[in-house]
Each structure stands twice: as structure tokens, then as C-alpha cells.
Amino acid sequence: MKIAVIGAGYVGLVSGACLADFGHEVCCIDRDPRRIENLRAGRMPIYEPGLAELTAANVSAGRLSFEQDLATGIRDAEVIFIAVGTPSRPEDGHADLTFVYDVAREIAAHLKGYAVIVTKSTVPVGTSDEVERLVRSLRPEIEFSVASNPEFLREGAAIGDFKIPDRIVVGVEDDRARAVMAAVYRPLFLNQAPTLFTDRRSSELTKYAANAFLATKITFINEMADICEKTGANVQDVARGMGLDKRIGPKFLHAGPGFGGSCFPKDVRALIKTGQDFDVPSRIVEAVADVNERRKRRMGRRIIAACGGDIRDRVIAVLGLTFKPRTDDMREAPSIAIIQTLHDAGARVHAFDPAGMEQAREVLGDVTYFRDPYEAVAGADAVAIVTEWESLRALDLKKMHGLMHKSILVDLRNIYIPEQAVAAGFTYLSVGRGDLET
Ligand code: UDX
Predict the structure, then answer these.
(1) Apex CA 390: angle with CA 386 and CA 394, to 5°?
(2) Predicted structure pTM score
């Protein structure tokens, strides 16, 4: 099939490369000429394991191409995916649909014959209806369908998530679109991926409901961690005991500094807005957003308290800056609020991240960066681990201890065994497991 994907960002690029790998002929379109130039030269605009290789293989097989001009890119396409950003609107937290509707208008201007226009971006309920209305008003003579097909991939595991998904959700309003979408995903049906065909509105809401539910699960276990700390329980055991109940499941029960990233915070805010707009506010989701936001700064205060309350001119080392491992993405990373809190209290922050330091420079204030975690902790009063990168899981704690001015280890991802940290000479704090002193 001939497929166009508009927006060569995270979702667009991964979807485009994977669809090409299924054997479709895919053109990824982006209005940013530098991005297209880089992609044509094999340079990826995002950090995603395996993406460069997958892209190169499909480009050389002649199935994947990149195009700046939308009219050229969508020519003869049977399916046109809209995969542009839907960021939070600063004024009210709702999803900003400017890019989606701009693209819909442009598609309308260049549509030559029947195509299925698919909203793959995360969009509020009713957006696909609006895309249909827009295109129809501009091109009443052309036949087309609009489908909703949200993407559930995670950064850092995007290719695997796309190719072996837990499920595919497709919202359609007519049989022709349904048949076309079935053909797009046929290779996955052969993998027996469960496919849910539904109406467009249910499909759109499914994405928000799933993300908000996962965000709730994380926030819930984070609150349980707080209760564990006060009562002497161990949150990892509590999570394991809960997760073994098949109705609950073990995933997304890792307590930590709060969720971040490009999806959860923004989607939670947009769902809150939808509920309020329709006069059915979701108290649960509102609480999740509020609790998570406060938590990030609270983690900063926890580090300060561990240092005795006064960290003016003290060096605090922060290891792991990105919102999660295996990405260079700093969007809404807990490290931002934590470092702000440390700065507000007068600390000097030394930082290390395996992939995110370039991005971090753009969002963090006055931070000194190091290319090595041991260099970052040298002379520090405390070290905080904020992201659970593999390379941070097996640090030589004795060596670290020897390099530091004081020896406080705040492990916000619970990746060390408390007794081992204490044996290496640290006062050790983690999340929901009780603090241990040397
Ligand atoms: C998420 C969804 O998982 C994905 O389906 C959707 O399409 C986009 O949003 P992503 O943002 O890439 O994906 O990251 P994810 O691995 O889900 O983690 C999100 C945040 O939750 C991270 O900050 C992570 O550290 C945090 N998290 C996750 C926890 O704190 N505890 C957990 O148990 C799981």
C-alpha cells in the first residue's frame, strides 16, 4: 500500500519506518527542511534504539522516503496519517490542535482521490469528526474517510511496541475505511495482535483513558510509598503483593519521583480539560495531576532535608536527568523540578546523564555537567539518582563514597540494595523503603 505520514517526530518516524518494514511504501513528510535533509542523510532527529538501522534498511529497499512538500508526499497515498504534535495549550492545559487542523486543511487542498485520513496524534474526543468536517467543507466533491488510530508506543521501546503491540485500536465510521485500515495492519493481525475496531470517539478516548489510568497507577503506588516510609513497610514488597493479583498486574507499580515525559503529563491535563468542558470533571485524574506535580518538588526538598536542611553553596550531584532511561527526552522530567528546588535552596548542582545532557542544557539553569558519574559526584555532599539508567545501576559505591565530601545517597528509583549502600559508607534514602544510616 502507499502510505503518507505527516510529521516526522517520535510517533510519525517510528510508525513510518515500521509500516515500511511491513512492506508498505511509505513517505514521511515534515515541513522542517533541516529535518528532512538530515533524515535523507540517515541522521535521526530523535534518540530511539534501532530506529536508525530500521530507517536505513527500508530506505535502501526503496520503501521509505522523506519529503518536505506535502502535496508531493501525499500523491497517490491510500492512507494519510496525521502524526503531528498536540502539545498542551499553556493557557488551559487542553491539547493544542493547531497543527492537526493546519495539516487537515493542507491535505484537503491537495487530495486527488479517495484516501483514508488517519489521526494518529493523541487528540481529544471529537477531533476526527472536526477533521472530517473541515476537509469536507473545503473539498465537498472528493470522497475520503477519516479514521482514528491512536499510538501506544513508549519512548525507548518504540519499535518493539509498534511491531508487537498489546493491541491496535482503530476508530472508523464506514466499512471502506475499516477495510483499508485492516489492510494497513494485516502483517500485525498475522502476529495475532488483538485489534479493536470501534467508533472514532471511543478510539480517541481510549488513548486518554489508558494513559490516565497508567498515570494513576504510578501515582497510587507513589502515595503508598509515602505511607510505607511513615509506617515502616516496604513499597517494593507491597507492589509485588498487589501486582500478583491478576486483576491489578505488576506493571507501572514502581514508586519513584513522579511521572514525566511527553505524553502522560500532557494527556492527563487534556483529559481533565475534556471532563471539565463536558461538565463531568474527573476528580481522580485531577488529583493525579496535582499529586504528581507536587511530588517532584517534594523530592528536591527530601534531598535538602537529608543534607540537614541547609545546602547553600553545597555541591549536590544528580545522576540521570531524562524522564526515563533509553531516551534523551527531558520533557517534564522530574529532574527539572528537583534541580530547581535545589537551586532555590542555594546548592551548586553537578549532573551526569548518559544521553540527555544536550537537551538538559536547554531546560535546566545553572548546572555543571560531567561526562562521567564519578566526576560528577566528586566533592559533593549528596548524590541523587533520578533516572534508572542501566549504567547507573552498578556504580562502584565505595569508589563514589571515597570521592565525595559527605556521603548521602538519595536513590529515587530504588535501584540499590539499602544494606549494600550502607556497607559502602552511605546514609541511604530511597522511596518507600525506610532510610538507613551508616
Ligand atoms: C507513555 C505510555 O506508556 C505510552 O503507551 C504512550 O503512548 C506514551 O506515554 P512514555 O512516556 O514513553 O510512554 O514512557 P513510560 O515508560 O510509560 O513512562 C512514563 C513515566 O512514568 C516515566 O517518567 C517513568 O519514569 C514513570 N513510571 C513508569 C514510573 O514512575 N513508575 C512506573 O512504574 C512506570
Answers:
(1) 90
(2) 0.95
Indicate the fold that domain 199-438 takes in CATH. Rossmann fold (3.40.50)
Q: What is the pLDDT of residues 316-353, one digit of tens each?
A: 999 999 999 999 999 999 999 999 999 999 999 999 99
Does residue 129 sit in helix, strand or coil? Answer: helix
Domain with CATH 3.40.50.720 in the chain: 2-197, 199-438
* Cα dihedral 272/330/234/291 (nearest 10): -30
Distance 309 CA to ligand 1 centre (A): 32
Catalytic residues: 263
Q: How confident is the model at residue 219 (pLDDT cuts 50, 70, 90)?
A: very high
User: Do 156 and 164 form a contact (C-beta atoms < 8 A)?
Assistant: no
167: Cβ below 6 Å to ligand 1?
no
Q: Is there a contact between 422 and 433 (Cβ–Cβ < 8 Å)?
A: no
CA of 151 to the centre of ligand 1 (A): 14
CA distance 121 to 15: 11
| pLDDT tens digits for range 243-287 | 999 999 999 999 999 999 999 999 999 999 999 999 999 999 999
DSSP count for the chain of H helices, then E strands: 18, 14
Q: For residue 256, say whether it is annotated as part of any ligand binding site.
A: yes
**pLDDT digits over 44-79, tens only?**
999 899 999 999 999 999 999 999 999 999 999 999
The pLDDT-based confidence of 434 (bands split at 50, 70, 90) is confident
Whether the predicted pLDDT of 437 surpasses 80: no
Partners of 57 in the beta sheet? none
Helices (H), 43-157: 51-60, 70-73, 98-110, 127-138
Answer whether 256's CB lies under 8 Å from 323's CB: no
What order do you get walking across the sheet with 367-369 strand by strand? 367-369, 348-352, 315-319, 382-385, 408-411, 427-429
Any ligand 1 atom below 6 A from CB of 264: yes
Cα 378 to chain center, whole Å? 32
Gap between the Cα atoms of 372 and 369, Å rounded: 9
Looking at domain 2-197, what is its CATH homologous superfamily? NAD(P)-binding Rossmann-like Domain (3.40.50.720)
3-state secondary structure of 203: helix
Q: Which of ligand 1's atoms lies nearest the C-alpha of 262?
A: 11
Substitution candidate for ligand 1 out of 48, 168, 214, 327 with most atoms within 8 A of CB: 214
Report helix, strand or coil for 84.
coil
Q: Is 296 annotated as a binding residue?
A: no
